[in-house]
Amino acid sequence: MAVKLEKSMYQHARQSGITLTELLNQERPSQEDGLDAFEFALFEKGINPSKDKVEKFYRTMDDKILFPEFINRNVRIGMVGLGKLDLNLEDIIATTVSIDSATYETVKAVFDEQKNFEFSRVSEGGDFPTVSMKTGSEVVKLVKTGVKIRATYEVLRRMKLPVLAIHMQLIGKRLAKKKVAQAVYTLLNGDGNGNAIVPQVQALSYDNLLGFLLDLENWEASVWFAKKALIKEILTLSEFKDSRLFDTARTGALATPFGFDLKKFNWAETNLGDDQLYQLDKSATLEYVKESGAELVETDKVIERQFENTVVSEVCGFSKIYNDACMIFQKA
User: Fold this and answer.
1) How far from 256 is each of 29, 37, 225, 260, CA to CA, in Å?
2) pTM passes above 0.85
3) Does 118 reside within a domain?
């Protein structure tokens, strides 16, 4: 017998750090090929997400319980749907940590720069170079990043579900852009532990960009990114316009300076990143810290048809791992 759908499932899923879909896969798995547990639950209830209206989710309590996950799923689709030229969170984070509080105590590592790491034998009683690992002086505070929906049930009830899905996916893209901007802000200004970066101010030239590339000591850059205006200036330098090396005009693929896919930091809301080129080793630069659980929309409000001022949000923050794994070029 199938497990009964209950509103408390969202709380159970949140405590386990999984989505309702993942919980349903465990507790009431699909009995139809090609459908996951959530899609099978919709199938059982006669809800067709490709043609039905929102009001179909409000016939019974079971139907209502499924609606928040319908919204969550489409927001998540949008959150991973930024353009191929755009800087994505996955381009710059080394690892993801889930916690159940609003603050995160970081661990920082400091190498002993006074002693060289030599390949010579250490004499008896001699001292080795050390790396010190200790908690940061300040905790990282998580913040809520979100979008408020202003719409009544009467407005939404006759909306086709595929149209609502498009709107929710767009909200997901907006959230993804805000999180990328939050990550870039942390790269520049630090996470509160005295680890802001001072950009290198130089004229934009091929020679200076080559020097910038070579200045990243101890790390290997995995990505370069900048805003659109600076990307245009970089890619119109004569060294990167050579059609024998790059085929941008024919294929639309941007030139790859020094072998890097130059990603676009797609952020126009503030001057963050203006005239700045970033390079970093994603394996050692940022931790992405988020609140446990996978609910993005306010579940109770959606179930009770209280859409006015409902918020789609995520609580997250960023911690820097190694500060010198990122460098910033500032165009003079």
Assistant:
1) 46, 43, 11, 5
2) yes
3) no
